[in-house]
Amino acid sequence: MGKITKVYTRHGDKGETSLVGGVRIKKCDVRLEAYGTVDELSAQLGLLVALMAETDAERSMVLHVQNTLFNVCTHLATDQSQTPLYASARLPEGAVAELEQHIDRLMSELPEAQGFILSGGTLAAAQAHVCRTVCRRAERRIVALAEVAEVGEEVQRYVNRLSDYLFALAKKINFNAGHSEILWQNACN
Fold first, then answer.
1. Whole-number Cα distances in Å, 86 to 77, 116, 164
2. How far apart are CA 132 and CA 178, in angstroms?
3. What stretches of the chain show up as alpha helix (H) in DSSP?
4. Phi and psi, residue 5, nearest 5°
5. Residue 105 to residue 39: CA distance in whole angstroms
6. Where does the pLDDT of residue 54 fall: very low under 50, low under 70, confident under 90, or very high at 90 and above?
């Protein structure tokens, strides 16, 4: 991979950008909303990694997820009616199952759930919850895109499962830190 020598191109100055394959779209397009939100999620995950202890076993998994999200973005940035999917637009084999295995393991290491929890706890756990909510927004944007364009079911499944992983991760981070979670108290009672 070569060195990036120029960050700006001026091609987007009038509110358009290029998709994979060169197709131009408006920057407010539902497709750009979808992969832009996944990019935002990746940036939030980067902050989570920075907040996690270097010794945290899940840190490498979060970095792995960031890498996989590049595949998701490439997939979403490809208008398959005009450009075939590149290999980099496909998820690694077993990506959804891998998330499910991590979720199952994390949840098995936690005490039984006692109700709905408020997002928060340690700084890293709170950031995992922020990532979870951005992931849910990305999922909504992907579903909206799938209403008007081809989106692989595996991409939708991956992002759906990723929010579950981030929930389990937040709980595990708090548990490891000995930080009790705050249970939701119905304000109507």
1. 11, 41, 28
2. 21
3. 30-51, 59-76, 95-108, 123-148, 153-176
4. -105, -15
5. 27
6. confident
